[in-house]
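Sample pair:
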Amino acid sequence: MDIVVAYDIANTDTTAGASRLRRLSDVCASYGGRAQQSVFECRVSPLSFHQMQDEIRRVVDTDQDSVVIYRVLGDLATSRTVIGQGPRDLGQPWIV
């Protein structure tokens, strides 16, 4: 399956935040390619998808950080997996 992973890591100006950012980037890079600074496109099997989520959970601080994983198979609202803080209200339509 194809997925898009987008993330925001809090307090990257601290040692702990910078470490989480680097470790999360390494996890995502091991499953796919960088589309933007905090966005990765990945092609994973169902097993790899669950392994990736487990690795992400071990890296992020779910009280501060936000990781959103979109499975690209149709309606985005029903295809979204959120780890940590949820996405903000999108408001006006975006062109991506």
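The domain at 2-84 is CATH 3.30.70.240 (Alpha-Beta Plaits).
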